[in-house]
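Q&A log
Question type: sequence-to-structure
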Amino acid sequence: MNICLCCDCCCQILKNIKDFEAPAKIVSSNFQARVNPDACTGCQACEEICPMDAIRVDAKDITARVNLDRCIGCGLCVTVCEFDAVALKDKEATEKIEPPANLVETYMKIALEKGLF
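Response status: OK
Response body:
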């Protein structure tokens, strides 16, 4: 129905999710950002673009670190890293979800969770 660009400047949904302590527990995604510390230069591009403030560059070792409780797996950080230090990786098998195949399945799942069926 739509494509999310993960832009927190105009998306009220992302603005609201960002207020939670652990946005990753609210958003259904099978991916999270991971940083290769050997490739990271600490340029802060990933930190600046992250809509959930999930990435911080450590001042001591000048390496980006991902707070996995905040990372929603949008991949914006990957798009701005000029050094290929950031990548989206699969979550652990126990944390993975199977997304609904279509809109009808989505609403059926919501109805089941609400006890309407």
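Response note: The helical segments are 12-18, 45-49, 76-80, 103-113.
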